[in-house]
């Protein structure tokens, strides 16, 4: 019997650090659908959009990936008025960076 996912889990497979074939464990259709959605979300935008995001990210002190992830996850562009959220992102970056050495 398979374990039920946690209440807040969206039902998709893990997209990072996946080991093994997509049809090994679990439903292959769900895995392939989520992988396609992940690829579509991270598809390279136009050159102009990429440069705009990069410039805004640098102005806010974030990386391009952090800024783009915020757009994908929350559907909004960060600005100088979002100082609290920017501080949270920077704090999470520090935690990730230091946790590798502990």
What is the fold's blueprint, element by element?
Blueprint: H1 28-41, H2 47-60, H3 64-74, H4 83-99
Helix pairs in contact: 2-3
Key words describing this protein structure:
about 100 residues; mainly alpha; single chain; globular
Structure, described:
The protein is 55% helix and 0% strand. It has four helices and no strands. The protein starts with 27 loop residues before the first helix and ends with a helix. 5% of the residues are buried.
Please tally the β strands and state the result.
0
- The average pLDDT is 78
**Biggest sheet features:** none
**Distance between the amino and carboxyl termini:** 36 Å
SSE ordering: HHHH
Q: Roughly how much helix do the residues carry, as a percent range?
A: 40-55%
Protein structure class: mainly alpha
Would you identify the regions where 5 or more consecutive residues have pLDDT less than 50? none
| Mass-distribution shape | globular
In short:
The chain is 55% helix and 0% strand. With 102 residues, the chain is mainly alpha-helical. Helix 2 (47-60) crosses helix 3.
């Amino acid at each position: 019997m398979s374990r039920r996912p946690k209440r807040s889990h969206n039902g998709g497979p893990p997209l990072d650090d996946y080991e093994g074939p997509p049809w090994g464990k679990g439903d292959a259709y769900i895995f392939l659908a989520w992988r396609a959605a992940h690829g579509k979300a991270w598809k390279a935008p136009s050159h102009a959009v990429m440069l705009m995001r990069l410039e805004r990210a640098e102005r806010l002190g974030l990386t391009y990936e952090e800024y783009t992830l915020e757009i994908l996850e929350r559907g909004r562009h960060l600005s100088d008025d979002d100082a609290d959220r920017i501080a949270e992102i920077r704090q999470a970056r520090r935690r990730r960076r230091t946790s590798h050495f502990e």
